[in-house]
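Methods — Computational structure assignment.
A single polypeptide chain was analysed. Its primary sequence is given first, followed by the predicted tertiary structure written as structure tokens.
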Amino acid sequence: MKYLVMLCDGMADEPYSGLDNKTPMMLAKKPTMDMLASKGEVGLVKTVIDGMKPGSDVANLSVLGYEPAKYYSGRSPLEAASIGIDLSLTDVTFRCNLVTLSDEENYEDKTMVDYCSDDISTAEAKILVDYIQSKLGNDTFSFYSGVSYRHCLVWKNGNPHPGILTPPHDITGRPIKEYIPQGSDVAELYEMMKKSYDLLKDHPVNLERVKNGKRPANSIWLWGEGTKPKLDSFYSKFSKKGSMISAVDLLKGIAICAEMNSVDVDGATGYIDTNFDGKCKAAIDEFKKGQDLVYIHVEAPDECGHRGEPENKIKSIELIDEKTLTPVVDFLKGYDDFAVLVCPDHPTPLNIRTHSSKAVPYLIYSSKDEINSNIENFNEDTASKTGNYIEKGFTMMDYFLKK
């Protein structure tokens, strides 16, 4: 039996005025998703429990079958695992975004122009993060480069609860004054953020980016604090050999901590220009190697939601269906039995351009248990009308594997 999880990050949405009060899922041409939905179970699943922030960390842990209330220790430690940082139990990690801030003289008067600095390349970002490390790093604080705009700060013997740190993608286009670090032990963190602007604004990498019409990565932004995670292995929980295919450190880190096989794909960017074909090939290769379950994570719909790009969000769903899901499903038809789970991790509504805690649509298809669901279009509305509801998202993986 082979199992495919097609995780479409942030795909779920709300009716949007710019799309005639429809959602991207409603408008996207996605024949394979719709076909699977027509022959499988469709419903809603609550991936983010009440009281927890609706991040991809919490939501993907839930989809993978790990109860966040038990296993979650912060976002950045999972990313640190992907980067290969050897954490001690007393280390505290932070996500370190390279962001674009406006150019007001006082730091607190600036606006969050872009949480990802125009998707800065990994090569450019490494130069900037290494420079920040050379200027701000010391025996207590160390900066590590990751992928694109996503990097890591490690605070040795740090405070795991220093205060309130806001994700930058939650405040795009807003003045940062109300969102700068607040709390009892954030002074050093905020000071590094302010110093980073003076260090980066005229860095040669950024001068070249501006010359080429790109936004500069002119500041770091710290958030997502946490401590070393402790996940049970995926195999010990479910007796299945699992593989993870993703462009982002967070998902790779979850896979490493869960002792899944984490697969790197050349050209996987986390945006709509990602290598959809490469992810498809990687998934097929993992099945050929004998893996029982492959989890394909595609970040593109989420990024389009954060950027407020309705047409690109529709396009990203169509590309997932055409270039990744369809050929992998066609390959799986060569096995006697296979099952497919398709779902987002959380909504990223175009209206608010950040994550929501609302339940998301799911479909579960089993080749040996086809049904007539009367679903013609897999979307938020049709899923809600089925009456199927999984209240505890972390139970869905076990349900999927047994079904």
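Note: Residues 372 and 391 are 24 Å apart (CA to CA).
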